[in-house]
Design goal:
The chain is mainly beta. 12% of the residues lie in helices and 58% in strands. It is built from 2 helices and 12 strands, in the order ααββββββββββββ. It has a 12-stranded antiparallel sheet with strand order 3-2-1-12-11-10-9-8-7-6-5-4. The chain is globular, with a radius of gyration of 19 Å.
Length: 169
């Protein structure tokens, strides 16, 4: 009987090692499906994010990524204008719930809520005890159901955010 359990354990090992066959970085970037590349424009700045076929993000500003056993990003370093920021991520029901980082000695947390279509409805940014709400409206979607344009508001400033998404065939 002991040998049977050992055999089953040995047979299960390759499957356990393959359990993380998908990364959830596409979802982290508010998209779904076989996304190959997202090119995003915001306030005149272009950000390009590439993805492998298994959904892992390839971004030169990102390093030291730590994933859980299910392929969800838990923490990483993000280089923003020459500064390395350690970002931690919290997930709930397969969606990003919040991300936190230290900026100029202050803890900054962005907490996200979602609309009926599963797109972000609002980000609430907390820094040093102060909160600022950033709602998103007027979404436009591509043929894959991912948003390609939306309106947002931050600190009373209205903005339109757009992006182009390329997919694996």
């Amino acid at each position: 009987m002991k040998k049977v359990f050992m055999m089953l354990a040995l047979l299960a090992l390759p499957f356990a090692m393959q359990a993380q066959s998908k990364f959830h970085d596409v979802e982290l970037n508010e998209a779904s499906g076989p996304v190959k590349k997202i090119t995003q424009s915001l306030m005149g700045q272009e950000i390009i994010i590439d993805f492998t076929t298994d959904g892992k993000m390839q971004r030169k500003e990102l390093s030291d990524a730590v994933y859980d056993a299910d392929g969800y990003l838990q923490s990483a370093k993000l280089n923003v204008m020459g500064q390395d920021l350690k970002v931690t991520f919290k997930w709930e029901d397969g969606r990003l719930k919040s991300q936190s980082m230290e900026v100029m000695g202050q803890e900054m947390t962005i907490t996200r809520s979602y609309n009926e279509q599963g797109a972000p409805a609002e980000d609430v940014i907390s820094v040093g005890g102060m909160e600022n709400s950033s709602p998103y409206t007027e979404y436009q979607y591509d043929d894959h159901g991912n948003w390609i344009s939306r309106k947002g508001s931050m600190m009373g400033q209205e903005m339109t955010q757009s992006r182009k998404i390329e997919y694996y065939e």
